[in-house]
Specification:
585 residues, alpha+beta, 8-stranded mixed beta sheet, 12 helices, 24% helix, globular, disordered N terminus
Length: 585
């Protein structure tokens, strides 16, 4: 690929790992020098050398800087380097040339007073069954959140001033605090919600170590009183659920402090959430609500908070593990019917893509997908990039003008970040697709394995230049609309009536662009006609899910009450004759 002058300028700092300095030598570092940060690893912190991503955050907000990392308007300066074989009793130096976001290099920090904190996102070595050895952060029950990951080491936040001449004194941080382990999820079980966790044989074989997937299961009314009754399953796909998110079994607590939601511009959104969860529980336990199992899956990978529910060259066979290992075990334990006609999928955003992908890749194993605001389902509209025709993801290049591509907008079209900005933050948080953020996870799922054992880059992370050979691999394996078009002769009869897509026409991430292309194809189908639904929310943002009555802020809390009637209608029309209608109240 072409390398721009800017890429050359940053090549050396990005390749730099770290410099080890004996702790006893730090006392001599009193002379004023270049802008840099020294991070100490205490002598008693670890018996084995550590690998990982060392992240340093400078923040002018209150609280711990590790929680202030964002690509949006509130972005605070963050810098990162890889460390390998870091020995206790030594220090790593983050030099003034290290690449950062939104300040491009540490030496360019504007004068001011900051709260500064360092954190080490620790990696483990995986020897995979494909012969590749990779270093990645394992999930530790937190859903791949590096700022909260148990076992990660961090420093206290300290106040530090950068003057007009740089740093007036050395900045030394010590990783003397460790994020504690989380409680056992099973402790959250109730009469209505149960927790399941299994060792996946398929994933353990792929990763060369024990790998687990789990789920929260919501039981229907009168479950214990009807031990012989069997139920359909509704699988709610989405990001890592730390607990079951649909219901609250007690009335909302309005005495707690109100929390403002910047996303929805609503005061007391925490109270609104509790009110809707309580309302959903009342409906769920009413005389007339359908009886079914609702499942929220936990399937984090070493790359992200979930796997995207498909088989992948870099992640392993998560699609098979979910469909052929986890769901059958849930159905065995909780009286699921266990047939493809009795399983349904729904979700929004990441979960919307997963619901559609699982339905497309396992057409006989599911009987309908309710797909809200899905991640790009056609890579001709990979948000605002055409991966097959565009040369650069970050800019529209013309002879006399270079226009940045937008990354996020509001319902009026106001842009607050670009694709380049979001991707540069990811590059700070992790090289080799290890940031744990959105653009990297798509790469980890859709890309072939690169020469270094990590996912092949879809584009140069610094410059945005697209690799069309990688894009072609994406098209043939994960471009859902292309796959539908290519294979409709065999897929069409199996998917008729199963695809239902909803998106706002002002989705913040431009996800409606791909849905337009999907609708164009689906409406052109015959023999058979797809017989599903594509619907748009007027001026609706992310993540509109088909609710023309309530706002996004409300409807996103009521997925199951919205989709249950559609699921029951499908069941009544497609269930085999003579089977028990266990979903009927």
């Amino acid at each position: 690929m072409h390398t721009s002058p800017r890429a050359v300028a940053f090549a050396r700092p990005l390749a730099l790992l770290f410099v080890l300095v004996p702790l006893m030598a730090l006392a001599a570092c009193t002379q004023r020098g270049p802008v840099e940060v020294t991070v100490q690893l205490p002598a008693d912190s670890t018996a084995a050398p550590l690998d990982g991503r060392l992240i340093v955050v400078f923040s002018q907000r209150e609280g711990e800087p590790r929680f202030h990392v964002t690509d949006g308007p509130g972005a605070q300066p963050v810098f990162g380097i890889d460390v390998e074989g870091w020995m206790a009793g030594t220090a790593a130096v983050v030099a003034d040339t290290v690449f950062g976001y939104p300040v491009k290099r540490l030496g360019d920090l504007p004068p001011g007073t900051y709260r500064v904190q360092a954190i080490l996102n620790r990696y483990e070595t995986f020897v995979r069954s494909d012969g590749r050895t990779v270093k990645l952060p394992p999930d530790r029950g937190e859903g791949q959140q590096w700022a909260r990951k148990p076992g990660n080491l961090h420093s206290p936040a300290v106040e530090f001033t950068v003057t007009a001449d740089g740093m007036a004194e050395p900045l030394i941080l010590t990783l003397d605090q460790e994020i504690p382990a989380l409680p056992d999820p099973a402790e959250q079980e109730t009469e209505w919600v149960k927790y399941v966790r299994i060792r996946s044989q398929r994933l353990s074989q792929f990763w060369g170590t024990d790998m687990y997937i789990g789920a929260w299961v919501l039981l229907p009314r009168d479950f214990e009183a009807n031990p012989d009754r069997r139920y359909p399953v509704a699988v709610f796909h989405g990001h890592f659920p730390a607990s079951f998110s649909h219901i609250r079994t007690t009335p909302p607590d309005t005495t707690t402090e109100c929390e403002y939601s910047a996303r929805f511009d609503l005061e007391c959104y925490n109270h609104i959430q509790e009110r809707e969860q309580w309302r959903t529980f009342q409906e769920w336990t009413s005389d007339n609500f359908p009886r079914m199992l609702v499942v929220e899956i936990q399937h984090p990978t070493p790359f992200y908070d979930d796997s995207y529910a498909v088989n992948s060259a870099n992640n392993g066979p998560y699609g098979d593990a979910i469909t052929h290992e986890l769901l059958p075990e849930i159905e065995r334990r909780f009286n699921g019917i266990g047939e493809g006609w009795s399983r349904f999928l729904y979700g929004g955003s990441t979960g919307g893509w997963e619901a559609m992908a699982a339905q497309v890749f396992y057409p006989d194993d599911y009987n309908g997908a309710y797909i809200a605001c899905p991640d790009p389902i056609d890579f001709r509209a990979y948000t605002v990039v055409n991966l097959y025709e565009d040369e650069n993801a970050y800019y529209i290049d013309e002879p006399f003008k270079r226009t940045p591509r937008p990354g996020h907008r509001d319902w009026l079209g106001h842009v607050d970040r670009t694709l380049e900005e979001s991707n540069h933050l990811e590059l700070v948080l992790g090289t080799r697709t290890r940031s744990g953020q959105q653009w990297d996870v798509w790469e980890s799922v859709y890309s072939p394995v690169g020469d270094d054992g990590y996912p092949a880059r879809i584009w140069d992370k610094l410059t945005g230049d697209i690799d069309h050979e990688v894009a072609e691999y994406w098209r043939e394996n994960y471009d859902l609309v292309h796959i539908l078009r290519r294979d409709w002769g065999t897929l069409g009869p199996k998917l008729q009536g199963k695809l239902h897509i909803y998106v706002g026409d002002m989705d913040n991430y431009y996800l409606n662009n791909a849905v337009y292309l999907a609708e164009e194809f689906l409406e052109s189908t015959d023999e058979p006609y797809y017989a599903g639904e594509v619907d748009y929310g007027d001026r609706a943002e992310h993540c509109w899910n088909g609710d023309h009555v309530n706002s996004n802020a409300i409807s996103r809390l009521r997925y199951i009450t919205m989709y249950a009637p559609k699921i029951v209608d499908r069941l009544e029309r497609t269930a085999p004759l003579g089977v028990e209608r266990g979903w009927r109240p």
